[in-house]
Design brief:
binds manganese (II) ion; about 375 residues; 9 strands; binds 6-O-phosphono-alpha-D-glucopyranose; alpha/beta; globular
């Protein structure tokens, strides 16, 4: 900061009062239990032949209960010292966290939950189309990590580029915009968009849809002894901490190799839209409230919103098709039951949540996995009775 933004006042603290008091914006991203617990979220379901993913399926639900505990405490702390602050939240699993925050802070319009993945997919489209991603204007609906693009408009001409993209994906496959910086597992994930798009050609899918629509394929191609968490701990985590240690040793950040990605840019764009009242269209996770007419009004959905200094104004999305509606109804019930399990400390509700997940084959398997997850999450989960 001193080198690149000398005009910035920078300070850091682990003191809650000092951190939050008088803040205008709070950016949140916590990982309850850290990467070692992520490894368990992924490993435990995979070792039973089920999807093991940090946000989807049984692992995501385990992480969800941990996040409910830590996030709700943190947001109460923030509200205690900064009742008016905008809270912009990336913490995962964002779908479950958003529902928990809706239940705990029902009238708080200044908590906004976000995810960078739809924007990542839009940027991938720009790579395929050979255009600037800022010229693309997406229309999207779904739950967090479970959604579809209905249109990708060219901002200048108004043309819907989705038909063209469908053909390009068929011909060239699908790669992240920053493919050269990605691990193989992410390239595989983006690669599955081609399959999803060929089999369900109406809309362009979010990359996370693969976990619900092709769980058998994904499990077959996963290594339960070496999951994404292991890849992150051996790769990105070492690189980032190594680069940071290097900066400290050399006392300069010149040529340090850090660069800005979508995840960083998106949350800053959101803060700017609020601070400067830009009224731009951004995809956010908000209470449905009739935006999708034929869907639960109390569901937290991911849809386009106009963002300005009053916050987020969701666009009216109209009706969604039966297929996506059915998938979303099942999954939103899973998410709501997880949050109810946390609120009530209910074993039964968590068992129901797992039973209802599209990634779990039966109530019997759901119970087995729940008992394993309770054991693995001792000290993190509320007690379930
Ligand atoms: C995307 C998702 C995030 C998720 C991240 C995981 O950015 O939107 O919700 O946390 O991927 O990435 P990683 O590289 O840690 O597997
Ligand atoms: Mn996300």
């Amino acid at each position: 900061f001193k080198e690149q933004f000398p005009e910035l006042d920078f300070s850091y603290t682990t003191d809650i009062k000092e951190a939050y008091e008088g803040m205008d914006f709070v950016f949140m991203q916590m990982r309850a239990g850290g990467l070692p617990m992520r490894a368990k979220d992924e490993h435990i379901p995979l070792s039973m032949g089920l999807i093991g993913q940090e946000t989807c399926g049984a692992g995501g639900m385990a992480y969800g209960l941990r996040s409910c505990v830590d996030m709700i405490k943190a947001v109460h702390d923030i509200r205690n010292y900064a009742p008016e602050a905008w809270i912009l939240n990336y913490s995962n699993p964002a779908a479950i966290v958003a529902e928990a925050l809706r239940r705990e802070f029902p009238d708080d319009k200044k908590i906004l939950n976000i995810c960078d993945q739809p924007e990542n997919v839009v940027r991938s489209c720009s790579r395929l189309l050979g255009c600037d991603w800022e010229n693309l204007d997406p229309v999207y609906f779904g739950l967090n990590h479970y959604g579809w693009f209905t249109n990708i408009y060219d901002i200048k001409t108004g043309e819907d580029l989705l038909p063209k993209l469908r053909e390009l994906i068929k011909k060239n496959g699908f790669l992240p915009q920053d493919a050269e910086q990605r691990d193989q597992s992410w390239l595989d994930t983006y690669g599955m968009v081609e399959t999803l798009m060929n089999d369900f050609p109406d809309f362009l899918p979010n990359t996370y849809d693969q976990y619900y629509l092709y769980p058998d394929y994904v499990v077959e191609h996963s290594n339960k002894e070496y999951t994404r968490a292991n890849e992150v701990m051996d790769g990105r985590e070492k690189r980032v901490f190594g680069a940071a240690a290097d900066i400290v040793a050399k006392q300069t950040a010149k040529d340090c190799g850090f660069s800005t990605d979508t995840h960083a840019a998106y949350i800053v764009d959101l803060a700017c839209a609020i601070a400067f009242n830009t009224k731009e269209r951004m995809l956010l996770i908000v209470s449905n409230d009739g935006a999708i007419i034929n869907f639960d009004p109390t569901a937290m959905v991911e849809i386009p919103c106009i963002v300005g200094n009053e916050g987020a104004e969701p666009l009216k999305m109209g009706e969604i098709p039966q297929f996506q509606k059915g998938l979303m109804e099942q999954q939103v019930s899973v998410e709501k039951l997880c949050v109810e399990a946390w609120i009530e400390g209910s074993y039964q509700k968590m068992w129901q949540a797992l039973t209802l997940s599209k990634t779990v084959p039966s109530a019997k398997v759901a119970k087995e996995i729940l008992d394993d997850l309770i054991e693995a999450n001792k000290g993190y989960w509320p007690e379930l009775k």
